[in-house]
Amino acid sequence: MHRAHALAGQCLGAIAGEMGLAVPHNLSRHKGWVGQLLEQALGADAESLPEPDFRAIGVEMKTLPLDHNGKPCESTYVCAVPLDAGLEPSWEESWACRKLSRVLWLPVEAQPEIPLPERRIGTPLLWSPNDGEREALQQDWEELGEMIRMGELEFITARMGNVLQIRPKAAHSRVRCHSIGADGEAILTHPRGYYLRPAFTHAILRRHGLVP
Asked: Quick one: 190 exposed, middle or buried, by C-beta within 10 A (0-12, 13-18, 19+)?
């Protein structure tokens, strides 16, 4: 947290410069660059493993791009939905639960009119879900997971889930993975990911007094 607070108020360009890294012209072809930069700056070590970013202390790091009103600009990716081998047996044992049990939120300016190198980091927040947040997450996870187990994956849309949603997650539309069809047969489908709705992450920041 000392290192995270030291980043608050700094510009992305300055952080990248201190690390000898180039800043891309824009994020259209460099999705995830901001998160990767800050993970490297803070010493995250999980890479693509199904573990929190900071494995030794069980902390996941998530950047939150904010608009000029302090509202998240987009849904926040949590983790991949395990489709090929079925879902985990319970919320407590799920990858999503492990990722969300302890999160370091790093707000980042994301207004298009601010050049990428000049966008600043906000005040960090080390967060764990309270009882109400945990219950809402678990309920969505269980309801969406039941649809997958029933072979109804193709009927799941981003409109489903109050705080946690499922959306396609792949580098391009040609990527496919195995899942379960309506009759229990193996099918090929697009990879999916769990995402937190912007209203949920905005409520977290508001509850802790970080945004209006």
From this structure: middle
- Strand ranges of the sheet holding 125-127, from the earlier edge strand across to the other edge: 60-66, 103-109, 125-127
Question: Which pTM was predicted?
Answer: 0.89
Structure-token pair, residue 76: 């926040």
CB 4 within 8 A of CB 124: yes
Cβ count near 207 (within 10 Å): 13
Q: What is the pLDDT of residues 140-152, one digit of tens each?
A: 999 999 988 888 8
Q: Where in the chain are the domains? A: 2-207
Q: 71 in the Ramachandran plot: left (φ > 0), alpha (ψ -120 to 50) or beta?
A: beta
Tell the CATH topology of 2-207: ECO RV Endonuclease; Chain A (3.40.600)
Dihedral (Cα; 158, 80, 30, 62), 10-degree rounding: 90
